[in-house]
Write a structure and sequence with these properties.
By secondary structure, this protein is an all-alpha fold. It has helices at residues 26-38, 42-48, 79-85. Helix 1 (26-38) packs across helix 2. It is elongated and about 90 Å long.
Length: 89
């Protein structure tokens, strides 16, 4: 008679899901540009978009009025003096 025990049963495999996402057209370009700005891959964002984590507006955004600074042309010339005033130099 042998005293060897039977090998332990294999643990059940973890359930998994493999998904494939294809984004095309304007949405694909938006995701590419956003990925470049965020330092992420377009594929990461393409997975988040259909999951609802990263919504993309379907209608055009209203124009934004970016107020431009219209200061004196020599503003930068005195900036160094102004910055050093608070440092005791």
């Amino acid at each position: 008679m042998s005293t060897q025990s039977e090998p332990a049963p294999e643990p059940p495999a973890q359930p998994s899901i493999t998904a494939s996402v294809t984004v095309s057209g304007v949405e694909a370009q938006i995701l590419r540009d956003l990925a470049a700005v965020l330092g992420r891959t377009p594929e990461e964002l393409a997975i988040e978009h259909p999951a609802g984590v990263l919504p993309i507006p379907t209608e055009p955004l209203p124009p934004v009025d970016w107020g431009l600074f219209d200061g004196p042309p020599d503003l930068a010339a005195g900036a160094g003096d102004w910055l050093h005033e608070g440092t005791g130099r």
